[in-house]
Amino acid sequence: MLDINDVIKVKKKVQDNIEVGEVGTIVHIFDMTPPVYLIEFIDDEGRTTKMVSLKEEDISLYWIASTETYVDN
Question: Of 19, 44, 54, 62, which has the fewest CB atoms closer than 10 Å, so is most exposed?
């Protein structure tokens, strides 16, 4: 399971404004089965550009916050 502050990559087209390979951070996990994750995307200045709810099937883990390690995808 993914956790708050983990960094993900979008692995398939889910919305017109979200690109495959785009990187975002999990900021909330909705208590659903299967879980739905609120992902925050930021620009180069650190400003939030969008927040989107995505399913685990739409994303892949990129960086694990608890261990501060990258995942080899």
Answer: 44
